[in-house]
């Protein structure tokens, strides 16, 4: 992996005529391999994205929509009033896309690789080319292409510097997630969509939707229509049709939606509509383990989920279960009858919920606590999400479980004191040497817990720090050095400004969390 990186930099410095040590490829995340030259091209007035052979039919319009979005991402609302672009300059007439499969269903493991080339011109107009195995790889290629483009205010055309470009790219990890939490604060649909847009810019591919929690239950569940009585207000709700709209919107951008229903803790809001889910009126969580009704409700939720959330996995939470209410209420008697203590009941609950999810065709993700407490009992299809304890990922993969890294001291976005560098430097495979075990680390996820974010500040809390982690999960591993840090910081500065230009409220790199700029100055110097 390190060899590839060295290759990238060697190629850059040897290919660029008169290159200085300050030569930086302004791409984020950095592709697996890049080479470029020194010619400047301008996009033709009649510049077009088009398909060129291949098997893909675009019956869902994924590529067509991608092309349309690309124009906005490239022009950045500048007015292209340029004159005769063909006069005396090198012209890029368009980008042709070749996709070798008809596949248009996105899921875990979808091929996301692509190759992008922008040739040199000898005077005649030329075409760029994207080749990919799936439309989702092609979308990544388009994103990379859009970052090569820059508006030239003097000529009023879009330029591409440093042609010819040859880029060959694929992700390092198959699972590259961002969690949003719509229970602690409701997020309007428009904000969820904006988050998805920015995920596509950074090549993140799983939106982990932590939909419900203790504080509120905003989602409609047709099987149990009183559950969303636990929403904060009438206007802070999502219909199932809204959820489907989000899933489809995300899919069109190559982003999967992982739905979470966190049980048996973090579920107090369920009882607003169905108080029988509480152990008692004065002791409201975890969910009542003793009632069949509890599992019927979970079954109903997952049955409704399975019609809308087609991602292979569902998240069943399982974290921070404080079982005091199972000891004090009517449940105490039930435990005695069943010869269980509270720990047994916790295990019983998690395993039953897992069985229900499997029945609905899902694989399961749980936060790490079930693994820590009764790892050997978990369904082998379980994926362990390590957020808390050091060494858990290593133990989990050793036992053959797949694992996702979200360590709170590095990848929790609600921890405002974690800097972008710390996000960047966190390494999911740290301490895991065995290659069989490494393959079970399927990726990572940054988590935007919602206690202090609503639609007024979520964007600047997520970005640009989530983008730092996105590059870590995308590009080949590279050991950090002072020289690299300079490049990385410059590139991320540049990317942060691009996010701003595209309407994403990404915060300055300076300081931590979501700080505002301190003084007047260029976007690139904050
Ligand atoms: C690039 O860095 C090397 C080693 O630090 C130095 O010898 C060389 O002069 C530098 N080249 C330029 C163009 O700055
Ligand atoms: C085209 O280029 C020539 C030579 O550079 C220049 O003299 C002429 O004014 C240009 N024409 C237009 C329409 O820009
Ligand atoms: C439940 O009660 C038993 C017996 O009093 C005690 O050992 C156990 O720690 C209690 N568990 C919880 C979760 O409170
Ligand atoms: C609960 O019971 C199991 C056996 O069923 C035992 O292994 C475990 O230590 C007990 N846990 C507690 C907290 O008493
Ligand atoms: C790596 O792990 C696998 C599976 O646990 C084991 O069979 C293999 O011996 C390990 N390899 C090394 C070099 O330790």
From TrEMBL:
GO molecular-function terms, A-Z: beta-N-acetylhexosaminidase activity
Enzyme class, UniProt record, top EC level: hydrolase
Keywords from the named record: Glycoprotein, Glycosidase, Hydrolase, Signal
Gene3D superfamilies linked: Chitobiase/beta-hexosaminidase domain 2-like (3.30.379.10), Glycosidases (3.20.20.80)
Annotated InterPro entries: Beta_hexosaminidase_sua/sub (IPR025705), GH (IPR017853), Glyco_hydro_20_cat (IPR015883), Hex-like_dom2 (IPR029018), HEX_eukaryotic_N (IPR029019)
Domain Beta-hexosaminidase eukaryotic type N-terminal stretches: 27-148
Catalytic residues (positions): 320
EC numbers for this chain: 3.2.1.52
Catalytic reaction equation(s): Hydrolysis of terminal non-reducing N-acetyl-D-hexosamine residues in N-acetyl-beta-D-hexosaminides
One CC-aspect GO term: membrane
Signal peptide: 1-18
GO terms classed as biological process: carbohydrate metabolic process; glycosaminoglycan metabolic process; N-glycan processing
Domain Glycoside hydrolase family 20 catalytic stretches: 173-475
Family statement drawn from the similarity comment of this UniProt entry: Belongs to the glycosyl hydrolase 20 family.
Protein name per UniProt: Beta-hexosaminidase
Organism listed in the record: Zostera marina
């Amino acid at each position: 992996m390190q060899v590839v990186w060295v290759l990238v930099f060697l190629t850059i410095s040897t290919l660029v005529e008169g290159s200085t040590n300050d030569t930086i490829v302004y791409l984020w995340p950095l592709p697996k391999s890049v080479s470029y030259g020194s010619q400047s091209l301008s996009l033709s007035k009649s510049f077009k994205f088009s398909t060129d052979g291949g098997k893909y039919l675009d019956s869902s319009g994924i590529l067509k929509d991608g092309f349309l979005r690309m124009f906005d991402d490239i022009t950045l609302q500048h007015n292209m009033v340029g004159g005769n672009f063909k006069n005396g300059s090198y012209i890029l007439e368009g980008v042709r896309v070749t996709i070798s499969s008809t596949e248009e269903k996105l899921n875990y493991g979808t091929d996301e690789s692509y190759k992008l080339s922008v040739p040199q011109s000898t005077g005649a107009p030329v075409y760029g080319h994207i080749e990919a195995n799936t439309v989702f790889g092609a979308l990544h290629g388009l994103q990379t292409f859009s970052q090569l483009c820059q508006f030239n205010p003097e000529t009023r055309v879009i330029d591409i510097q440093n042609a010819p470009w040859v880029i060959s790219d694929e992700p390092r990890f198959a699972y590259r997630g961002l969690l949003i939490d719509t229970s602690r604060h409701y997020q309007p649909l428009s904000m969820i969509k904006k988050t998805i847009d920015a995920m596509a810019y950074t090549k993140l591919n799983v939106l982990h939707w932590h939909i419900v929690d203790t504080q509120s239950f905003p989602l409609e569940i047709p099987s149990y229509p009183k559950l969303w009585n636990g929403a904060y207000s009438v206007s802070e709700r999502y219909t199932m049709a809204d959820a489907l709209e989000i899933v489809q919107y995300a899919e069109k951008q190559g982003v999967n939606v992982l739905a979470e229903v966190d049980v048996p803790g973090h579920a107090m809001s369920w009882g607003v509509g169905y108080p029988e889910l509480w152990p008692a009126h004065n002791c409201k969580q975890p969910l009542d383990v003793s009632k069949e009704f509890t599992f019927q409700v979970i079954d109903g939720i997952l049955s409704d989920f399975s019609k809308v959330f087609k991602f292979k996995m569902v998240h069943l939470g399982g974290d921070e279960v404080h079982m005091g209410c199972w000891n004090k209420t009517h449940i105490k008697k039930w435990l005695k009858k069943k010869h269980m203590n509270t720990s047994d009941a916790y295990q019983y609950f998690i395993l039953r919920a897992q069985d229900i999810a499997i029945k609905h065709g899902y694989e399961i993700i749980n936060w790490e606590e079930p693994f820590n407490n009764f790892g050997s009992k978990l369904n082998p299809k379980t994926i362990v999400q390590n957020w808390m304890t050091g060494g858990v990922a290593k133990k989990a993969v050793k036992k053959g479980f797949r694992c996702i890294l979200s360590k709170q001291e590095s990848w929790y976005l609600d921890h405002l004191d974690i800097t972008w560098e710390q996000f960047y430097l966190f390494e999911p495979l740290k301490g895991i040497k065995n290659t069989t075990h490494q393959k079970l680390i399927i990726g990572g996820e940054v988590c935007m817990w919602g206690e202090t974010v609503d639609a007024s500040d979520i964007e600047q809390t997520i970005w640009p720090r989530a983008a730092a982690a996105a590059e870590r999960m995308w590009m080949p591993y590279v050991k950090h050095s002072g020289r690299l840090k300079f490049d990385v910081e410059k590139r991320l500065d540049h990317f942060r400004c691009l996010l701003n230009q595209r309407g994403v409220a990404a915060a300055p790199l300076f300081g931590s969390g979501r700080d505002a700029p301190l003084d007047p100055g260029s976007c690139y110097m904050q």
